[in-house]
Amino acid sequence: MSSLDRLQDDTTRWGKLGCVNVDPPRPLTTRERATLDLLLSPDFPGAEELRSQVSSAVVVGRCDCGCPTIDFQVDAAAPPARVPWRLAPSELETLPTGGEPPDQVMLFVEDGRLSCLEYVAFDQRPAQWPDPRSMRVVGP
Length: 140
Description:
Layout (H helix, E strand, L loop, with lengths): L2 H9 L7 E9 L2 H10 L7 H7 L4 E6 L6 E4 L17 E4 L9 E7 L2 E8 L14 E4 L2
Antiparallel strand pairs: 1-2, 2-3, 3-6, 4-5, 4-7, 5-6
């Protein structure tokens, strides 16, 4: 059984409140990948392992509110990261263009594996990921 077949089998067990399965799982878009790369650009405990997982990440879920939040799975053979919390220590913040508050992007990790890229909007909720050039890293 291929890695993708194992990931697809695992998605049958997947499901969270407020999330919709993506069936079949799909690869990350260019903008999702760039956002994830920016978020993982600082050095912190476990960052190297999380970076190595990105190449096998597939999207298995999305938020049902219409925001760009996604859930993913990575190949089970990828090395797990030793991060002390479920929330990665670096975040992204949008660069506001007017008087609106900045939005945030957070990365969640489960059992040492990339789990969720969450977009938190405080004003207008975008339907897709903003250009990573319009975000900055907040954190270590």
